[in-house]
Amino acid sequence: MISETVKVSGHIIDSLILPKILDEIMDLNGTFEILELSIGKRKTNPSTARLKISASSRPALEMILMRLARLGAVPEAAKEVQLLRAHKDGVFPASFYSTTNLPTFVRFRGRWLPVDRIEMDCGIAVDPTRARAVCVPMVHVRKGAWIVCGHHGIKVVPLERARQKDVFQFMHSAVSSEKPKAQLIASVAQAMRAMKRAQKKILVVAGPAVIHTGGGPSLERLVKAGVVQVLFAGNGLATHDIESAMLGTSLGVYLDRGSLAKDGHDHHMRAINTIRDCGGIRQAVRRRVLRKGVMHACITHRVPFVLSGSIRDDGPLPDVITDTLRAQDEMRRHLHGVGMALMIGSTLHAIATGNLLPATVKTICVDINPAVVTKLADRGTFQGIGIVSDAASFLRELCLALHL
Amino acid sequence: MSNPQSAIRNPQSFLMCPPTYYTIAYEINPWMHIRRPVNQRRAARQWEALHALLTKRLGVRVRRLPPVKGLPDLVFTANAGLVAGRTFIRSNFRYPQRQGEEPVVERYFRTRGFRIATLPRQFNFEGEGDALAVGDTLFYGFRFRSDADAHERLASLLRRRVLPLELADRRFYHLDTCFCPLGGDAVLWYPKAFDRYGRTVIEHYVKEPLAVSESDARKFACNAVVVGHTIILHRGISSSLRRRLAKRGFTVAETDLSEFLKAGGSVKCLVLGLG
Hints:
By secondary structure, chain A is α/β, with parallel strands linked by helices. Chain A has 13 helices and 20 strands.
């Protein structure tokens, strides 16, 4: 049971507002306890009631509170949010509120405003004229913006535990390699179909291990079948995918035979050089230099991708965004409408994406190393499930489960 | 010193605003349709006829609020605020389309020596449109335009009982579209515009509630103004209502306000009691 204390005052007895509030609570399957009731002695004196309202779930309680707010009963603890101006570009006021990735509301002028684009480790800017609250990363704060400070008037809504049995219940147990994978993958496939029905986007974050282990064709199939709507990766995945599409190897190893190619160590450099010569991946596809693979499928099936660079990149490919902040922004831009994130064989990108995701996005982290999955959870992306598996086997199984 | 309570109970002078800029520029209630425009000449004629009826026939003093371009609904002065003695409680309009009226009326009342009282910005309150007195009790409609929690502030400002009533029918978005004090303990009302709690409260506190039919309510029969024993209504009410009003000693004065009905207002919406 979740509860909240509300207060209502005024001429609430004569006008039957109080009986109406009590009826409304019961009609909406809530319960109440009258903590305090003081009745005005004369007819011009106001009466005051304090009620503790309980409901079975957060949405049910929110529904009751919304209805009661219309009747003038407001949560007692609701203090107005404290706003201070940012004194410098890129710097929050010292007492700024640092966000979590959970749905957050701020109390502004008597109303709970939802915070748009919630993301962990950011601040909240409030536009007083439009009464809008939005999550802002530190680098984007501008001098003079009104920033939420302190802890008053901020409500963070914990995630509901699913009532029905669903795949994301697994998140409550520790990550382990000793779990029956077939059922888990079947449940993931089912959750993906549900996302599609709900018209939510599925994001895939993939590391180069997907290509090295031979998972490229399965990922390509998922892209072509429209299962994947956005792809986040780095220079590595794109390079090795292009290398395998052009030369049949990944890091110089033939993917079909498993044997080393002669002078194969420079294959990926040749692949990068060819794409750089074309001007980019899109141009290479257009000139039919690149004819298959994951990146090819993304271009031909109009699946947007963000390739972000790192300090150890070779090349890089012209499509790689080497400015980290710009890459973050580009990733944020594509997160709108994402309902599920599938992170395969990538540590840095999985954590980077996890940091940008609201907790409402279902996250599946697939890695051969259980530590990666644990690390993601420890950094606050606790809304996901971890599957300890080889990337290629997982993707192959997933394609089978999706009948692709 | 004037008594604020009697000022509301029996307003002898009114504030009206000529419909120079009156038009349907937006849709903020179910009656307004941009595609059903106002005939401005006819609206002006109808407004002048009402003005003449009040001033010449009934001898009421009517002050004119200068119209302002871009504020078409300023003509509905009843929503501008609530006058209590020499205090003017200014409205906080719900819709941004009407919020531009707030400084205009505030300036008008301030320059005429009224003390201005405002409610905190988070409370929406639409003046006499939602606050009407019967005896020394103020009935206060909320939900579509005014907020329930504003009633307590209003009660402490006016030092009188304020009974909030939830409106239940979007067509009757202000209390003055479905509830009209007739003086004394009588009220003209449309019961279906309230929920069962509201109906119980009205039936309990009003000695003589006079219910109107839906067809009369749709013709804004409750959006009437009472001056002495004369009740001014939009033309076209049923003969049975006319008979019942006559039986209670009222002279019914009907005037055509069809152009104002297009915006969801009739006689009462066009006048604000000044006391």
